[in-house]
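Q: Sequence in, structure out?
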Amino acid sequence: MRTFVRQHVPATTAVVSALALAAVFAAVGGVIPPRAVPHHPFVALAPHANAVVSVTAVATILAGVRWARRKEFGKHRVAMLASTLLFVAFLTLYLWHIILEGTTAFGGPDSVYTFVYLPLLAVHILLAIVCIPVVFYALILAGTHSVAELAETHHARAGRIAASLWVVSFTLGTVVYVLLHHAYA
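A: Exactly. Output:
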């Protein structure tokens, strides 16, 4: 299987990205019924947990970038695996909350909603969507090639793009969280 994936990184990236995005769109679109996922009172805390996950992910991504620049690839790999696990945790909590609780209504004034909240949310969502295939591409390359072989691939370039998109998306998501749950709660 690893050999097949290694030989078909773009196609594998496309399939995995499509599946991940389909799950997100199905949850947000209400296609997944609430009875399909376990209910627990903790679901109400998911947005707060995700804010912590997002800030932590920004830190691990930035650490991973720094270690890659210093050619400390063992540390880089650990940081990026941690970032990936944090992303999976974020996505799991987010989808769980959306399926069971729906979206959170913005409680602030219309002017802030129109000129601050919506643009931030739109850019956050767009970057999150664009980020998915780039992150998967970099991860699949890293998972199927040795460190020495990665120099002959587009891993470093894809990784720089993925890290940039990831950091901005997680940061904007945190700002959206603050607006929804603290500034205008």
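The chain is about 80% helix and 0% strand.
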